[in-house]
Amino acid sequence: MLKPNTSAVKAKSDQNLNRYAAIIERIFKKNYRTGLDSFEFSREEIAVVAEELGLKLPKNIGDVIYSFRYRNELPSNVLQKAKPGLEWIIEGAGRAKYRFRLVPLNRILPRSELLTIKVPDSTPEIIGAYALGDEQALLAKVRYNRLVDIFLGIAAYSLQNHLRTTVSGIGQIEIDEIYVGMDRQGRQFVVPVQAKGGSDKHGVVQTQQDIALCAQAFPGLICRPVSAQFMDDERIAMFELTVIEGSVKVVDEKHYQLVNASEITTSDLQRYSGSGA
Fold first, then answer.
1. Pseudo-torsion of CA 165, 166, 172, 178, nearest 10°?
2. Who's near 54: CB < 8 A, 6+ residues apart?
3. What are the extents of the domains in the chain?
4. What is the pTM of this model?
5. Potential cystine with 87: which of 45, 105, 172, 189 (Cβ 3.0-4.6 Å)?
6. What is the strand order of the sheet 38-42 is part of?
7. Helix or strand or coil: residue 64?
């Protein structure tokens, strides 16, 4: 199987980031005024600014926004304009419109002190051989090992992955994967799942838009947003999230490690029975 030239991929990624940073910094500078907590700009401005700077317009214009919403920090000149304890986010503001907005600064990282729970690995080996990236591999492992079911304690079923749709007041969004499920009381749930691999970061924007999509498309179901993230040693951190007063909060967090069934010892099982895991 041919492997990508990682050096070339990284160089192209760095080149794109520098170009995207220049574009988003110019858009911020053109629209920001001292004291503002939020302001809007249009998708069209990306093309206009790219031309002003003499930069090649990205084929996927939306990737400029996606990059800073989910993967990378905003340019330092933008970060410096945030008030103490706050940070700038970019959120959807309608069709082809976006909004810079100040929100409380928070970072969601796996807690090092949590117990790691071993789970018999049910991932087909061929999936591991041909997964095209961290995100796809993570979604596959979560799906084949029923980690949403295990984590939330419900029977959950994958409804659709990479769902692209439009949410009123936000614009176009994409959800990595969406599950529906039910518990033993008969309550039904919708579970939007974020997959975080590589340098991707948890943020208020994606969680807010996941919740908004659930309210619009599944008003009768209980929404339980989940985020999955690769840790070291191929461990997987699972978070149940919510948004309170503009900040992402962790409702619950568990860490799982997919192993051969023979690697789960009697000691492991005794430890889990007394841990509340």
1. -40
2. none
3. 6-104, 116-275
4. 0.77
5. 105
6. 38-42, 97-104, 86-92
7. helix
